[in-house]
Amino acid sequence: MRSDADDDALSWEGDDALDAPRPAVWAPASRTPQLAGDGAQASVPTPATAAAAEAAADATDAEDEPQGLGTVSLVLLGILGGIYLLYTIGWIIGGVGMQAPVMFTLPAVLYQAALWVAVLAPALWFAAVLVATRGSKDWVRVVWLIAGAALLVPWPFVVSGGGGAL
Predict the structure, then answer these.
(1) pLDDT at 117
(2) CB 90: neighbour CB atoms within 10 A?
(3) Is 166 a residue whose pLDDT tops 50?
(4) Coil, strand or helix at 85
(5) In whole angstroms, what is the distance from residue 154 CA to residue 39 CA?
(6) Percent share of the chain, pLDDT over 90
(7) Residue 118 to residues 48, 99, 161: CA-CA distances in angstroms?
(8) What is the DSSP string of 1-27?
(9) Whole-angstrom Cα distance, residue 2 to residue 9?
């Protein structure tokens, strides 16, 4: 046994108005109403011209809307983002481990500044590529991210095997 309260829980107020067919609002093409302000006549759109106008508007809307990232592009963006994160960790480990042998050639302030620039470089490159290639094709973004991955390799970490001693 079902009550009306159960049926109300499964519907929204005003659903019936959306399901009802809408009446046609187009006037015949032969009628041209007179504007009140001046003697000029305005034409009333016909269903054929209205359909053509809607199709043209839909085509321009589809061109104006930005396309989302594709699946392959999104996966590549995640992989390259992970590589950049590993590069940041590699620069931290390699730079801190290399600090003691290099301190006799550079003042501590210069070494710390260089270390921070090296640590932040992968994150800054990643963010700069995402911002700079916002309106371009996906392959352009991927090429710039791969170029950054080749340029920003944490050499102190790679050469020393993670110990930081050269």
Answers:
(1) 95
(2) 21
(3) no
(4) helix
(5) 78
(6) 31
(7) 64, 13, 18
(8) ---HHHHHHTS-TTHHHHHSPPPP-PP
(9) 12
The radius of gyration of the chain from alpha carbons, rounded to an integer in Å, stands at 32
Q: What is the dihedral of CA 120, 122, 124, 125, to 10 degrees?
A: 150
161: left (phi over 0), alpha (psi -120 to 50) or beta: left
| Burial classification of residue 87, based on how many CB atoms lie within 10 Å of its CB (0-12 exposed, 13-18 middle, 19 or more buried) | buried
Q: How far apart are CA 135 and CA 129, in angstroms?
A: 11
Q: Parse the chain into domains and list their residue ranges.
A: 86-160
d(CA 12, CA 160): 66
CB 101 within 8 A of CB 165: yes
Q: Is residue 31 pLDDT above 60, yes or no?
A: no
Helices (H) and strands (E) in the chain, counts: 8, 0
Task: Give the up-direction half-sphere exposure of residue 89: CA atoms within 13 A in the CB hemisphere.
Answer: 7
Q: How many residues are listed for the chain in this entry?
A: 166
Place of tokens 């929204």: 12
Query: Tokens in use for 22?
Result: 């809408």
Q: Under DSSP, is residue 34 helix (H, G, I), strand (E, B) or coil?
A: strand
Coil, strand or helix at 144: helix
